[in-house]
Amino acid sequence: MSKFYYPDVGGVERVVQQLAEGLNSSYRMRVLASTTKGAGETTKVNSVPVNRTSSLGTILSVSASPTFPVQLARMQREADIIHYHLPNPLCVASHFLTPAADAKIVVTYHSDIVRQQSALKFYRPFLRRFLDQADRIIVTSPNLLQSSEHLTPYEEKCTVIPLSIDLDDYSVPSNDPPNLPIDSDRPTLLFVGRLIYYKGVEYLVDAMANIDATLLIAGDGELRESLQERAVARGVDDKVHFLGYVPDEHLPHCYEAADLFVLPSVEPSEAFGIVQLEAMAYKTPIVNTDLRTGVPWVSKHGVTGRTTEPRNPDGLANEINSVLENQELLREYGNNAYQRVQQQFNEQTMLQKVDQVYREILAEQ
Asked: Cα–Cα distance between 182 and 191 in angstroms, integer?
């Protein structure tokens, strides 16, 4: 159960799709999600039935879908396990609005609610009751488990299962490369993600004043125009290139072209940073920020790259330059990055661990 589902893009949506399709041969998987806006529909995506409820849009990042509780009540009557993905207040509210079911409850806790602090005051008691009723809570990193006040009372029923990628999807690009604005005389930096408040791209733009490199920004969002204006104001628009939305088939070329991947996130809403895994699959070192989430755990300081404090353009520039100036270090971090993603963040391992959780709770009386 998710806020949205493919083809709507996002980290949580991607994980739900991985589980639904990856475990569909072992379980009769069904997905309940909302449309971003408009009429609902029932479809199949890669053999997985998907029920999308109608929505009036989003309010405080929550889908305004009045039929969601009704559809949950209908679908849960046939379910042995209901797997919720949080944060999603609509799912939590719907759970309490529907008749009690005998199904086991699994929760994947992706992140705390960070931005809507005033609404959180009213939501917190319902979240606590909901987590009380969960049979198992899956947490995406040990950092999140240790730092989240909401998870502390439930540590005994929490299981850490990191997010993952299928390395078979990350091979040498086979299609024709896009015309990337790179300069062969200087290194290339890459950022991939939505241009929204918690990504901290403005600090990366500021840092570029002290970095002799080309920066490719792959992604779109509400802050794109202001970031472009910022690049002009800082005098770095000649080396900062906004690519807009880059289709999946072209992203491998971006990762291949990059000497270093940068994730300058500034808020714990960045709970994991799965784009780090994608970069690591191409042996690309990472520079990230020291958040209290899984971000600095995914790519480790001094092993697969560098970690610096958030909201610090000078510190960001220093770490980027220190890696770019040492080709031996670049290769070492890149090789370590590939080994880490291969050993710790493999999709099959994630699927096996979730399958084990399902089997264990079904066996409980």
From this structure: 14
Question: Is residue 315 one of the residues assigned to a domain?
Answer: yes
From the CB of residue 244, how many other CB atoms can be counted at a distance below 10 Å?
A: 11
How does DSSP classify residue 177? Answer: P
Mean pLDDT, residues 35-42 taken together: 87
Tokens, residue 285: 């070192």
The CATH code of the domain that includes 81 is: 3.40.50.2000
Same domain for 325 and 257: yes
Number of domains forming the structure of the chain? 2
List Cα–Cα distances, 296 to 31, 121, 217, 290, 337, in angstroms. 31, 28, 21, 6, 13
331 pLDDT more than 80: yes
Burial of 82 (0-12, 13-18, 19+ CB in 10 A): buried
* Rounded Cα–Cα distance for residues 17 and 225 (Å): 31
The DSSP call for residue 294 is S
Mean pLDDT, range 306-320, rounded to an integer: 98
Over residues 45-101, the pLDDT tens digits come to 999 999 999 888 877 667 788 888 888 888 888 899 999 999 888 888 888 888 767
Q: How do 286-289 and 305-308 pair as beta strands?
A: parallel
Alpha-helix residue ranges (DSSP H) falling in the chain: 11-22, 68-76, 89-97, 117-133, 142-147, 201-207, 224-233, 251-257, 274-281, 295-298, 313-324, 327-344, 347-363
Task: Enumerate the β-bridge partners of residue 32.
Answer: 51
Containing structural domain, residue 198:
167-344
φ, ψ of residue 22 in degrees (nearest 5): -70, -25
**CA pair distance 244, 106, nearest whole angstrom:** 36
Q: CA 248 → CA 195, 239, 277, 307, distances in Å?
A: 17, 24, 15, 27
Which pTM was predicted?
Answer: 0.88
Confidence label for 247 from pLDDT (cuts 50, 70 and 90): confident
